[in-house]
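chain below, 142 aa
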Amino acid sequence: MKFKSAFSKLNFIIPLLPVSIILILSVFTEEDTSLIIFPALGIYVFMVLLFSILYYTIYYEIQKEVLIISMFFYKTKIKISDIRSIKYSDSIVKPNFYKPGCHHKGLEIIYHKYDDIFISPENRELFIAQLQEINPNIEIKK
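prediction:
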C-alpha cells in the first residue's frame, strides 16, 4: 500500500516569508529595486518549485516485507522485520539525520540497532496498523 507524505503549510510558509517580505518592501521603496527584486523573485520561484517537487515525490510504500521510502530520486528500503519501534513525533526540531517528511507531525521509525528515520504519512494510524500486520513485535511509543 502506498502512502503520500503529509504536507504542512507551516513548512512551506516559513522559508518563503523572508523572501516575501523583501519583495513587498521593495515595491514600496522609491529607489531602483531591480537589484533586489530579481534575485528575491528568483529565490521565491526556486523555493516554490522545490516544495512542489517535494510534495509530489515523497511517498512511503509497504510491499510484502519491505518499507520503501522515496524522495526525489532517492529510495531507501527497510525490512519491516528490522523495525523495532515507532514513536509519534509532533516536534518541529528533529534529531534524525534522514527526514523524508514534509510535516512536523510524523513518525520516528527505529530499526536495526541504532538507525532511525523520520517520516510523515498522511494517515499515521493506518500506516502503523499496516506495519504491525506484518511485524506485530513493533513497539509503539506515544
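The helical segments are 9-28, 34-57, 124-134. The chain has a mean pLDDT of 85.
thats it, cya
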